[in-house]
Design brief:
Elements (H helix, E strand, L loop, with lengths): L5 E4 L8 H15 L6 H19 L5 H14 L7 H14 L7 H11 L1 E6 L3 H10 L8 E4 H4 L6 H9 L10 E5 L2 H11 L2 E5 L14 E3 L5 H4 L1
Parallel strand pairs: 1-2, 1-4, 2-3, 4-5, 5-6
Helix pairs in contact: 1-4, 2-3, 3-4, 8-9
Bound molecules: magnesium ion (MG).
The site of magnesium ion has 7 residues, from loops.
Length: 228
């Protein structure tokens, strides 16, 4: 077993169940514009949103461009014109207020914080992510919380991790760090580029067709305790 000293962990889809909150938020926005929020429409929104996020991870667009673009594109397919700011405001209200922990999240944070220096590393809005961790009663487990809005770059970019490393004790080597997360193209790709170990949280047993190879793969958060 490797001797790790610092653990970086993703928030959405790893500690907090983002999908349910997202679904609720998207449905509220659809209702606002008189669109029936059925399953297929939510799925189409998620597809559009994920494409925006992939482009953001590649550095092709900014975080602001995600907010400006995703709802107009989604509603545009139905011929509905929307105010992106209004959409985001309503959406965020729902996402920020519906906090659902992934099974074992609190126990894992408690366990990791007792053994390692624990850091959150997330792509998103600083205020929103911090508030969600507070509401989930996870905030105090972290030494620091790194959010892409503050870092000026995002996972999987190396610059994001450089920002984190610069704020961690200088005597910790890359060999002694591990990144845990559900995102192959963000968390795992980013950890690999930064030269640290990686653990992919693959809750739904997705097939990995990306060619991105994590050091570890787990299906439950509980399993992480066997590695760390
Ligand atoms: Mg995630």
């Amino acid at each position: 077993m490797k001797k790790y000293r610092a653990v970086l962990i993703d928030i959405d889809g790893t500690l907090l169940d983002f999908e349910k909150a997202e679904c609720r938020g998207v449905q509220a926005v659809m209702k606002l514009y008189g669109v029936v929020p059925d399953h297929n429409k939510v799925a189409r929104y998620q597809e559009i949103n994920q494409n925006f996020w992939r482009r953001y991870e590649k550095g092709e667009i900014t975080r602001a461009q995600i907010s400006e673009g995703r709802y107009p594109m989604f509603f545009g397919e139905m011929g509905v014109t929307v105010d992106p700011e209004e959409c985001e405001r309503l959406y965020r209200q729902h996402v920020d207020s519906l906090i659902i922990l992934i099974d074992g999240a609190k126990e894992l944070c408690h366990y990791l914080a007792g053994k390692y220096l624990l850091y959150a590393a997330t792509n998103g809005y600083s205020k929103s992510q911090r508030e969600r961790l507070r509401q989930a009663e996870l905030y105090d487990y972290f030494q620091d919380i790194f959010v892409s809005q503050d870092t000026g770059s995002q996972k999987p970019q190396k610059e994001f991790f450089d920002y984190c490393f610069a704020r961690m004790p200088g005597d910790i080597s890359r060999e002694e760090m591990i990144m845990i997360g559900d995102g192959l193209t963000s968390d795992i790709e980013g950890g690999i580029r930064a030269g640290i170990h990686t653990c992919w949280f693959n809750q739904s047993g997705k097939k990995n067709e990306t060619g991105i190879q994590p050091d570890f793969e787990v299906k439950t958060l509980e399993e992480i305790k066997k590695i760390l």
